What does this fold into?
Amino acid sequence: MTTLTTGTPPMHTPDVARRGLHVQGLCAGYGKALVLENLDLFVPEGQVVAVVGPNGAGKSTLVRSISGALKPRSGSVRFHGETISGLASHQIARRGILHVPETRDIFGGMTVWENLMVAFDNLNEPGNHKSAFDAVYELFPILHEFSSRVAGNLSGGQQQMLAIARALIGRPKLLMLDEPSLGLAALVIKDIYIALERLRKTGLTVLLVEQNARMAVAFADYSVVLANGAIVLQGSRELLAADDNLIHHYLGGTARQTA
Ligand SMILES: Nc1ncnc2c1ncn2[C@@H]1O[C@H](COP(=O)(O)OP(=O)(O)OP(=O)(O)O)[C@@H](O)[C@H]1O
Ligand SMILES: [Mg+2]
It folds into this structure.
């Protein structure tokens, strides 16, 4: 399929001098199956870039290849000029790339406070956890209220908030969110996006993966549509919003269209 690019600068010719995440010629897959083939992506510092696409498009494979959960077959991933592809996931996390996976991966048997404490301990830095905890409690007050609850007993939305909070405790420079709205009610999704908007205002760089294309494209500064492991459309929010049919044409009508 031809790649249609709307808006500038084209993501497949990234300006290597600019700070941010540069993915170039990325190939990744599982066993004999190649999922991503020669993929290029640029996430400029301080911007929100969305990756949307139908089931099985390779969205999670992409974020897993960046976070080190999956070792890329070839290609390069650079963050602020440093090559990070090939590093172990804890080394990539230490460079400020934090990944909230689709599965959320919270410790269900631990309390909210203990989950946050694990993230704080992982930082392996001296100092008190209080100011870091206060910041995430301010963003998600329900986590403060339920700090002594066992995480496994929280609602799906509260668990998603905890998963994001845990990543924030790790002081991300790039936060990668894999389907933060998955399985959640519209009101909860709204709360999560309000929190993401506040984070965006702090200058945080975000790579947002969503099946809910309409919502993600409206939120992100720039979006790419992934289908069968390749980018088939990309462009700025303004340009993609100008033709609502375009993105849904490329999604093949499979994307959920929650307003
Ligand atoms: N652990 C795995 N082992 C083998 N194949 C996998 C594995 N994980 C994903 N795949 C396959 O890789 C392809 C891309 O999957 P991926 O999870 O990256 O898609 P996705 O865009 O995140 O989809 P979804 O919207 O359902 O989350 C699919 O064909 C999937 O079946
Ligand atoms: Mg996925």
Summary: Residues 66 and 77 are 7 Å apart (CA to CA).
